[in-house]
Design goal:
Blueprint (H helix, E strand, L loop, with lengths): L8 H4 L2 H4 L3 E5 L5 E2 L6 E4 L2 H12 L3 E6 L18 H18 E11 L4 H12 L4 E8 L15 E8 L10 E2 L2 H4 L13 E5 L1 E2 L10 E2 L5 E2 L7 E2 L3 H9 L3 E2 L9 E5 L6 E2 L4 E2 L1 H4 L2 H11 L11 H11 L5 E4 L6 H8 L3 E6 L3 H14 L7 H4 L6 E10 L13 H13 L12 E5 L2 E5 L15 E2 L1 H9 L9 E5 L1 E2 L3 H7 L1 E5 L9
Parallel strand pairs: 3-19, 3-20, 4-5, 4-18, 6-17, 18-19, 22-24, 23-25, 24-26
Antiparallel strand pairs: 1-20, 2-20, 5-7, 6-7, 8-16, 9-15, 10-13, 11-12, 14-15, 21-22
Helix pairs in contact: 3-4, 4-5, 10-11, 11-12
């Protein structure tokens, strides 16, 4: 498969491994509403934030939408969108790698881009996500009117590249049918099966039994299908369909046959298409008006309309799923996900995480009625937690910092051992869980109630017995135990099926 080469590629493809795990420190006074809904707004560099999320959300995000800088070589107020091409590629590679790790097996990622980097991004994503997992290039008709000041062409569209984490297991949701679409179905012959529309009875594909004369109800003989075409069905099948009143011959019974399709028999939804017109999903002017309504004094240059994000969320997720946007901007993705009953993680590095995203989401909680609120029946509620990026979990030698609290260390150890996120139980115990037949336990930070310098953190016969008592009923398999030290002999550990790991020295940051 072709790959892109750029000046710093060899370093950039390893960049995600070198990113330190950092703490996510909640700022309670900047959160709003019900803080236990699972929604997160993170202020900080998205590369660090994505790495910090891995121990908790790897493989759990159902839908990722990002709107990265387009590299148009023109500086925006909130973003420096003038990166050199190689620097842009260097910026995107490690972020795409981490986003892939966060994506669920049945999840998908959607990336907005224009023609400046769109074709390079396609090759980059082919390499990171696998070319076989490419789903579609959606074209968003974003301009309401022609840009007559354009030097060459009025650039009226953006791309949205869509990749599945695993195309074999991912399927898009059908889109809801609109009243306008349903209105195309009529019932001019009072068919008891209800409204219907008609489709062409002829087709271009060769069909051996598809060239025969047809006699209409009025007696007119149609010698055959149009030139170069074939009837879709045989003469016998046509008679069967006609007997069931599934053929429309026109009001006078004198037209060529057309196949009736009943509204009651069509799918509940419609298959997504790759061209999205602004009449359905909004345009740039609409997006700017939405942002102005929220903050008239400070307008983003390139926001996306809520209807566009609602289309992505509708196709790619279900209520309760996690939606992630690591280039949150003005907060549109999080606002739409909130209104549509999804959980969300929004990451924004600029100050507008506080000045724009937070107040926007607070207004959503209060029942704000802009954007898609009316269309999705939004009336308010929910909440979110606000986080800042804290210090690194591991020091410069790759060892765990000694002041990290038990749940954070537990999450990192579990992720390092299993490659999966740790689900924190309601009641903490030294047993973190069982994975692939092996139990994983941690003696740390007084988890056993003994907060002395070493007491509860040392593996002894007594603490081993306590660990075993906390194992799932009936489990007798091997264990990996992390602790400050062990006073048990190697032979005793082997006999007990215990592999001991010393904290902090044996706790490594997983790449």
């Amino acid at each position: 498969m072709p790959t892109l080469r750029w000046l710093t590629r060899d370093d950039d493809v390893r960049a995600a491994q070198a990113v330190p795990y950092r703490l996510l420190e909640e700022v309670p006074e900047l959160g709003a509403g019900d803080r236990d809904t699972g929604n997160m707004l993170i202020h900080g560099d998205n590369l660090d934030a994505l790495k910090a999320l891995l121990p908790f959300y790897a493989g759990q995000v159902r839908c990722i939408y990002i709107d990265p800088p387009y590299n148009t070589r023109s500086a925006f107020e909130h973003y420096d969108d003038s990166l050199e091409h190689s620097k842009w590629l260097a910026m995107m590679w490690p972020r795409l790698e981490l986003l892939r790790e966060l994506l669920a097996d049945d999840g998908s990622i959607w990336v907005s881009i224009d023609d400046n980097e769109g074709h390079y991004l396609k090759v980059l994503m082919d390499e990171v996500f696998g070319r076989s997992n490419f789903v579609a290039n959606v074209i968003w008709h974003k301009m309401f009117s022609v840009k007559n000041s354009a030097q060459y062409f009025s650039e009226d569209h953006d791309h949205i590249l869509v990749y599945a984490r695993n195309k074999a297991t991912w399927r898009p949701n059908l889109m809801a049918r609109s009243a306008k679409q349903d209105a195309l179905y009529k019932n001019v012959d009072n068919d008891p099966r209800g409204p219907w529309t008609s489709g062409d009875f002829s087709a271009r594909n060769f069909y051996g039994a598809g060239t025969y004369p047809v006699t209409t109800p009025s007696g007119r003989v149609v010698s055959g299908p149009p030139p170069g075409m074939y009837w879709r069905f045989s003469k016998e099948k046509l008679a069967e369909l006609d007997a069931d009143n599934r053929i429309w011959w026109g009001k006078e019974g004198n037209g060529v046959p057309r196949l009736k399709r009943f509204l009651s028999e069509v799918k509940d939804g419609r298959v997504p298409q790759t061209i999205w017109q602004y009449a359905e999903v909004g345009h740039t002017q609409e997006a700017k008006k939405e942002v102005v309504a929220l903050n008239a004094d400070d307008v983003f240059t390139t926001p996306k309309p809520e209807r566009l994000l609602a289309r992505v969320v509708e196709i790619a997720s279900n209520p309760g799923d996690i939606v992630l946007d690591s280039f949150l901007g003005s907060g549109t993705t999080a606002a739409v996900a909130h209104k549509m009953g999804r959980r969300y993680i929004g990451i924004e590095m600029g100050d507008h995480a506080v000045s724009h995203c937070r107040p926007r989401l607070t207004r959503v909680i209060d029942g704000e009625q802009g954007g898609v609120s009316e269309a999705v029946g939004w009336s308010g509620g929910g909440g979110f937690r606000f986080y800042e990026l804290g210090p690194a979990v591991f020091d410069e030698t790759g060892q765990i910092r000694p002041d990290i609290v038990f749940p954070l260390l537990a999450a990192h150890i579990w992720f390092a051992e299993t490659g999966t996120p740790w689900t924190r139980p309601e009641t903490l115990s030294p047993v973190l869980g069982v994975h692939d037949g092996r139990a994983i336990a941690l003696l740390y930070n007084g988890i056993l109630g003994d907060k002395s310098a070493s007491g509860g953190n040392v593996l002894t016969r007594a603490t081993l017995a306590t660990i075993r008592a906390a194992l799932p009923p009936g489990f007798s398999g091997p264990m990996t135990v992390y602790g400050e030290r062990s006073i048990l002999a190697d032979a005793t550990l082997d006999a007990a099926g215990v592999r001991f790991r010393q904290t902090p020295y044996d706790v490594k940051a997983r790449a």
